[in-house]
Structure formats: C-alpha cells, structure tokens
Amino acid sequence: MNMRWSTLLQKVLVLVLLQETLCSTEVLLSVQEEQPEDVEIGTISHHFTPPFWLLIPSELVRLDERTGELYTTAQPIDREALCPLPAAKEACLIHLLAMAGPDEEIVKVAVEIEDINDNAPTFPGEQIRLSVPEDVTVGTRFPLDDQAQDDDAGSNGELRYHLEGADGFFGTDDEGSSLVVIVRRPLDRETRDTYQLTVVASDRGIPSRSATVPLVVKVTDVNDNCPTFPTSSPKTAAVRADAPTGTMVASVKALDPDLGPNAAIKYSFSPRISDGAKALFTLDSYSGLISLHGSINRDGPTEHVLRVEASGPSCPPAVMEVTVSLLPATVWGPVMKIRYIADYRDGVMLIEENQPPTVLAIIELEEASPVKGAPSIAGGVPFSLRPQNGNYLLLTSEPLDYEREREYHVSVAVHDGRLPGGREEMVIRALVQDVNDNAPQFETPHYQLNVEENNEPGVTLVQVRATDLDSWQNGEVTYRLGADGAAMFSIDPATGHLSALVTLDREQQEFHNFTILATDNGRPFLESTTMISVCVLDQNDNEPVFTTADFIFFIPENFPRLGQVGMVGVRDADAGANGQVEVQVLNGSGPFVMDNARGTLRCVTEVDRETQDHYELWLLAHDGGRPPRSASVHVTIFVEDVNDNRPRVILPASNLSCLTVSPSTLAGATVAKIYAVDEDSGINSDISYRVAASEPRGPSPFLIDARSGNITLGQRLLLRDHGLHHLFIVVSDGGEPTPLQSTVWVNLLVNDTLEPCHLSAVPVPVLSPYTHLPPRKPVCEADQSDARYARTMLFISLGLMVFSASLFAGSLILFIKQMAIRRKNSQGKLASKGSEIPLKLRETYSAVDWTDMQ
Prior knowledge:
Number of strands: 57
Strand content: 35-45%
Radius of gyration: 57 Å
CATH class of the largest domain: Mainly Beta
Largest sheet: 5 strands, mixed
Distance between the termini: 17 Å
Low-confidence stretches: 1-23, 776-787, 826-854
Structural class: mainly beta
Helix content: under 10%
C-alpha cells in the first residue's frame, strides 16, 4: 500500500512541474513573398513532438499537424500589403501561435517575409516641369519634389536617377540616389528655350525595374541682350522741300532677342545732331518713325545726318546714322500717292488680325511724272503689290497675327535714276488690331493638392495661373469655380488663389474633385478649364471608440484554455497608422489577454467559479498616431457554474460514526441528521437524500426526508428492531444531465444501554441492480491542461496519505482494543447471564472496503 501511494505522489509531482513550466519558445522562419502554394517555409519540430496545430488559423500559412512543417497556401503572400510604407522598409513578420505535443506546449512562430523586386518605381505625376533662368551658373543644382516611390525594401527599393535627351546640358548626381537636376553647360534662351528630357528612375534590384516621366525644362529670359540695328536698315532718305509737316521721312527698327520688358526699346536722337535737324525732324520714341516736324528752309543745308539711338534696360544705346536729303521743290511733284481702303486713323492704317489677304490701299503714280518704274515693297513684311489698271493694290500676303507682330512699317519705293537719290520712298505705318482668338491656358491641366485636415479656414491652398496671348481686355483673365465646385472652396477672381472657407475633415470627405474656369474679357469671351483634385490628409484627431460603453461576457467554468471569450469591437475613424488600433488588458494579473489579430478577448487558463465567480477588468485601446490617442472600456466576465463538485457530507463525520436510539423513542421523532453542502450554484447545488440500502435487510423502521436529510423513526420500535441498523445514504445534487452523488453510512444502535456505540469496519451494502451510485473516480485524477487542478490534487493526495496512515493506526488500535473486550466478555459470561443482550448484538460486524468493490 505504501508503494502504491509513493508512485501516485511521484506522478502528481511530475504533473505539477510540467504544468508550472509552460513553454513559450519562439521559432523564427523566413520565406520569400509571392511564392506558389505548398512551398515549405520551415518546421517547428526540431525541439517538439507531434501533434501540432495553430491556435489561430492563418490564410497565408498552413501547418502540417504530423510533421510540424509550415507551407504557403493558395493565398499569395504580398509583403507590401502586409507591411505598407513606412513599415515596409523594416522587417515584415507574420506572428503565429502554435501548440505542440501532448502537453500542449505553446510555441511562438515568427515568419519573416523576404522582399523580392516585384514593384517598379512610380512617379507621383504624369509630367515634371522645371524653370531655369538662362544665366544660371554651370553646376547649379535643382532638387525636385517629384521623387519616385518604390514599395519594395532594401536594395529593391533603393532608387537611382538619370536623364535621357539632355544633350549634355543637364545631368544628375553621380550616385543618382536623389532627384536633383544639375546644369552641365551654359544656357541661352535665345538659342533654345525649351528642353524635353526624360527622367528614368531605376531600383537596385536584380533584375532592375524602372519607370520614366517626361521632364520639361523651360529656360526663362534674363536681360542678357542689348538692342542692335540690323545691317539692312535704311541709312538714307529723301524729302521734298515743299513736303507738308508730318510727312514720314524714314523708319528705323532695332532688334532685341530678349522677351517682354527685357526687350523694350526706346528711340531718341543723339544730342550730337545739329539744332537745325532737331527743329526740322521728330522721332517717335516707341516706333522709330522719323517724320517732318517743321518747314524746310530752302536756303538751309540740303542734307541732314540724324544719329538715332536705341536704348534698352541696363544697356548702352545702339547708334545708327540716317542721312536725309532735301529735294528741291522745283523738281516734279510726288511720284506716288495713296488712297486708303482700310481703316486709317491719325496716319496709321488699322488691320484686324486673322483676316485673309485683303486690299488695304491703292497706290497711284502721277501721270505728270516721267518715272515709269514700278513700285516695290522693301523688307520681308507680309504685304504685297498687285498691278491693276496702271495702279497698284497694296494688300496683305497672309493673315496677320497680333501675338506675333503688332506693328509694321511698310516701305513702298520707286527706283529711278532720274530721281534725286535715285528713288522715292513712302513708308506706311500699319497696326495690327487684336482679336480675341486665344483662350486662356492653364499651366497644367490637372492640379493635385495634398492638404492636411483641420486646416485654418481662408488660407491659400494653391494659386492657379492661366495666360492669354491676347491684349488688353481680350487678355484679361478672371477665375471662377465650375458648377461642380463645392461651397466650401473659394477662388480669387483676379489672382487665382484657391482657399478653403471651412476646416476640412478627412473623416467626412477625403477627396474633393472640381473644375476651375479661366475666362477672358473679350467679346465673345473664351474660356478654358483645369481639374483640381484635393486629397485631405489624415491627422490623428479621432480617438478609438468601443462599440459599447461596457462589455459583459459569460463563460462556463470549464472554459478551454485560449478560448474566445468574446469579440471586442473598436474602431478609429482615422486612416493609416492613425487608425490602426491595438487593445491591451490594463490589469494584466487576470487570466485574460487580447488577441488583436482577431479582435477577441481570450482566456489563457481555466477558471473555477467556486474560486472566483466573476472578473472585472479594463481594456485600453490606443492608435498608432504620434502622439497616440486612446480610450478605455470596462469589461465584466461572469463565470457560469458547471456541475463539477460532488456534494460533501459534513455530518456524519465518518462512516464509522454510530448513534444510540432508545427503544422507547416515539414514532416520528428525529433520531439523526445528515448535513451536506455543494460548492456549485443553482440546481447544481440542490441536494437531495435517499436510502439506497439498509442492513439488516427488510423494512427499516427509519425514514429520511429527501430535502432536509432528517432521519426519523417511521414506526414504534419492537423487540425485533433492537440492535445495529446501517443505512446507506446517497446524497445527490440537481445537476444536468447527470447529477453528481456522494454516499455515507448512518449507523444507529437501538438499545437501552448507555455505553458508547462502536464499529470495527465500514459496512458493506447489498444493492439492488437498479440502484445508481456515483461512478468510480481514480484517486489520482489530474487534468494536464490545468496546473491549478494538479496542485489541488497534490494537496488531496498528501491528505489521503496522512488519512490512510491515521486510519491504519486507528484500525490497529481498535483491533487490539476489540480483542481485549472479547477476552473480557468471555471471562464474565456467567456473571452477565441475567442481562444478556439480543443475539443480534453478539454478531461480529465486518465490512469490505468500499473502494475494493469498484
């Protein structure tokens, strides 16, 4: 018997040690992304024994329960989807939780997803524009914001840039790791004002992947040129002495290849010309037209040298000399005269642009003139002469374009040796009138804006610009929102500054798309549109919100380890890391943890209602913002009762207990009391009592109340009832579907004697085949998954060992005492004949141990 208890104790101790040393080993494996199905990742069987299974199944990884090997599934593993930027630049892990072996050892598995070069770089826009002044120094660097993005990691996501089509004028860094345009050669806008390049972004993967985007470099003008007179400009002119005031004498025109204000030219006479020339001639400072200002003194000089200066901004003046000959009045009258058909005002002919070749004037040769030569037009102007009935028609040779040239000086000359100076020239000034033939043009057809939410109302988001090549009111541009423009946006009609009138909220609307119209003031007006796309960027302005103010869950006390207690609903209206919520248990001393992958609360150990019938804890949810925002919620978990405790009999304290009942006891009197308790609750603790067997067999004079456990005398005691009565009582609870039971012996001695009642052994019941008794339960019953229960069994086992030792010692003492009593009785038989007790009491009562019957 001692060996039996020693072996049992060893087993219980081993069980406790195993449960107390619960493993949480972590295994690190790796696999490349985008692998096909059934590719082996690795195994967790090196230090563990089967079977294996995943506590939380995964769509991406499959575990072989027999071998412990992990394989990929039909669901491809996309590293960039699992670990988006910026986390994609770090190690990307899949965390799994597995159990191994019959001891259900917990194994943490981390699968690192290795990157492959499966993503090409991408540029944020369809085109990159760069403006560079033409006087920029060689070597100047222009960093661009339009960096490409590659979702891969490591060298697969490291980018380098180079330019194509630069013709040596532009380049990038030697390393090329950042998008920086470097000027390699001097630029000249007058030679070339636009460069069409291609930016190529390549990653460092093998094989490398790349992307391209057009780069338009616009060379902007600086005032690096000064006015010059072309060699073809007229250097001589003639005017008749009797010519009226205002007669056009000559026209000079200087050239400046710069643009806009840098090309503005102002004409003036040099201070070095004579006072007579100053009094006789005038020079238009803007057109360079020289005309007769006063009357010609016939006694004065016959020739004047006019020094004309052309000045530009920050430039020394260019000088040209025009020699004007004065013809005698006695020579013939005018060789040519002109009759205008086109609109003629203040000595200027006005011509609308875009008109087809049109007759502007008729040039007639004087009949009295001996000159019979044909007139001609000098210079490469878009005008021509056509003979008609002895006269000549002046007409345009092609449609004029105001945006290309706004003013022409048409020189019509007749060449004849008989004329003074060999020719007579007539200069006609023609102004091109603008027509609203150009619609405003935006810098880009699509503006893409990134605006953080919670912006300050009224602050400018972007300035849109549209230019109109027309002049005056035809080129004046105003801006307005299209019909699809939201009322929350406003645009300044004059400047094009777009602003938001209210604070933007990404959670209400993340994208805003609308059009902006640019309209000129021409009649009829022309307009164009551009698209505005506003992406409202997220700020961490929302805290996590639980779906209910309090969570209440119910679990049975035999709840499995790592079982799902319930779903914890929480959401965050923000996006990205600001909206990624993690929940943790604040008072972590309880047996509950959060499974954030599934959003569930789990129980890590088994619970016992009899030890604690409910748990209260707080959950804290915090997002991934910087700084994070958080919220908490109260959770109550009630442990529902399971019928896992048998009734425990308090009275009688032992199956050897014995009570003496007087034969004179009246019927209906209570002679004994059974008191039992059940640690369960509800119907599981509803106790009832019944007599399963009695000794001696046959009708018993004793009855038991099924609810109270009171044992009463059912009838008056007779002489045949004298002696020991053994009642085998079954105590049952009300558990479903099968109640739990305990048994106890109630021993009653019917006798007038006042001597104590003693039993030498526990009686042996004779049961009917219909009597149901508690199932046999091994003394060393332990659940390997419950360390608490194993410890309880340890204490019970130690108690049983102490009890057994005590019982053995008590039995030995009782045996010795009984032998002494028998010897005493045998010696005093004759003396006690007169008071002889019933034969029933002289019988020896012995019983087999109840456990041996099982």
